[in-house]
Design brief:
By secondary structure, the protein is mostly helical. The protein is built from 16 helices and no strands.
Length: 474
């Protein structure tokens, strides 16, 4: 059985709470904001595009603008939290997220909306790694921390469920603007309660921030996510795609060179000697690719092929999210009995099986007979995989680098999501085009493309299981 070592926390530097489980619930509420935003916006995209006059191709930038800022700034956000205080940076990120959500809801042009989405992503890049760092500080004991991560994973499932359901209800009744406004009261609750539950950070910054490293890695990540997103929108060999990829490689290389010479690096490269952390981030990269592509495809498939409205689409995704919530709560017991890696491998195999099953859904699918079963299996696999991967990603991390670990795992998820949406979305589009060229009716052609996408996500889950199985333990 894998032994999970708690993070080392320097005496007197970690935020503390006498009501840590209540504090966890509020931290999880902030994580709920980030998860909710992703799923709730997907449901609203078709209506949003019609009302603001955004075509289908440009509509992808509503997602991409958020992902670019979020994925590009996560490592910097995590390191800022380590330097200037996890609670302080968490509250700044939460306030920014609530304010920019309100700005997005007030948007009257596509340009205003895209700017607000980018600012939302930047705020989330401060919020997410700081929240995970606070969790690891509050729960140093391995058993309690595993239970806390189970709650964390369950909240992610609740966020997905609430997102698809609220997205449908709010879009149908109050308009697309309400899917952004809903973040504001939740953010206010978090901002009021966290200072009452978690003590202040130690005053003052620790050391000097690695500005050259921060600039190069942020630029490299933004360029990489932009290149991946551009693949789907303009093609693999388009000058924009190739140019962004080249910039990402150059800046990434410069970042590694800077980190090797800097006395106080933004990302100490030695952190990757922690094999559990490395495996956790690789699996999160692959898992993010599968999850983002899956949820995007499901929303489009149900609305464009099956003819469901936004509300019905939200309701049909509840079984998946419900299964995820239940299994996330049970995952800590499985980790304690079987070990983290065995639990993760089993979860990934279950996830792959559900995705293969879903790939056989026809163009005239009936929800109860064709979609419900695979949705539940997928939720079971995702619930176990999410909790266990997060556990590995923060396993044994020093207290002064917990924000960095949170930034790394969230960065892996975002980069993986952009990669999955770009590559698997392109595969689906090419398959659909081939079928249309062969004279296949549009609904069947689109279904054929989605079948390839679902099968591709299953392959990604299998690869993640193989990586987990063959990687050596610490």
């Amino acid at each position: 059985m894998t032994t999970i070592a708690p993070p080392t926390i320097a005496s007197g530097t970690a935020p503390r709470s006498t009501r840590r489980w209540l504090a966890l619930s509020v931290l999880a509420l902030a994580q709920f904001l980030v998860v909710l935003d992703a799923s709730i916006v997907n449901i609203a995209l078709p209506v949003l595009g019609q009302q603001l006059g955004i075509d289908t191709t440009a509509l992808a930038w509503v997602v991409t603008a958020y992902v670019l800022a979020f994925g590009g700034l996560l490592l910097l956000g995590g390191r800022l939290a380590d330097r200037y205080g996890h609670r302080r940076v968490f509250l700044i990120g939460t306030a920014g997220f609530a304010a920019t959500s309100a700005l997005a809801g007030l948007s009257i042009t596509s340009e205003m909306l895209l700017a607000a989405r980018a600012l939302q992503g930047a705020s989330a890049a401060l919020l997410a790694p700081a929240a995970l760092a606070l969790l690891t500080h509050l729960f140093a004991d391995s058993r309690d921390r595993t239970r806390a991560l189970g709650v964390w994973g369950g909240v992610a499932g609740i966020g997905s469920a609430a997102g698809v359901l609220l997205g449908g209800i709010l879009t149908a009744t109050l308009g697309w603007q309400s899917v952004f406004f809903v973040n504001v009261p939740i953010g206010l609750v978090v901002l009021v309660t966290i200072p009452l539950l978690i003590t202040r950070d130690a005053s003052g910054a620790r050391g000097k921030l690695d500005v050259p490293g921060a600039a190069t890695i942020t630029g490299a990540l933004v360029a990489a996510v932009g290149a991946l997103s551009a693949i789907e929108q303009v093609g693999l060999v388009h000058p924009l795609t190739l140019g962004l990829a080249a910039v990402a490689v150059v800046l990434g290389t410069a970042f590694v060179a800077i980190e090797r010479r800097t006395r106080e690096p933004l990302v100490p490269l030695g952190v990757f000697r922690n094999r559990n952390l490395t495996v956790g981030n690789i699996v999160m990269l692959l898992g993010g690719a599968a999850m983002v592509a899956l949820f995007f495809a499901l929303s489009v498939y149900m609305q464009s092929v099956l003819g469901y409205d936004a509300l019905t689409t939200g309701l049909t995704q509840l079984p998946l999210a419900g299964a995820l919530v239940i299994v996330a709560g049970l995952a800590p017991a499985a980790i304690a009995r079987l070990g983290a890696r065995s639990t993760l491998i089993g979860s990934l195999i279950v996830l792959a099986g559900g995705l293969v099953w879903l790939s056989f859904a026809p163009a005239d699918a009936v929800f109860v007979t064709d979609i419900l079963g695979p949705s539940i299996v997928i939720g079971v696999g995702m619930g176990g995989a999410f909790v266990t991967t997060t556990q590995l990603s923060v396993d044994g991390v020093e207290g002064g680098e917990s924000g960095l670990a949170g930034g790394l795992v969230n960065t892996s998820q975002q980069i993986g999501g952009a990669l999955g949406l770009a590559v698997l979305g392109t595969v689906a589009a090419l398959r659909t085009d081939d079928l249309l060229a062969a004279g296949v009716p549009a609904p069947e052609a689109m279904t054929g493309g989605f079948a390839w996408l679902f099968a591709g996500t299953a392959a990604v889950a299998v690869i993640a299981a193989i990586v987990t199985g063959f990687a050596r333990k610490n």
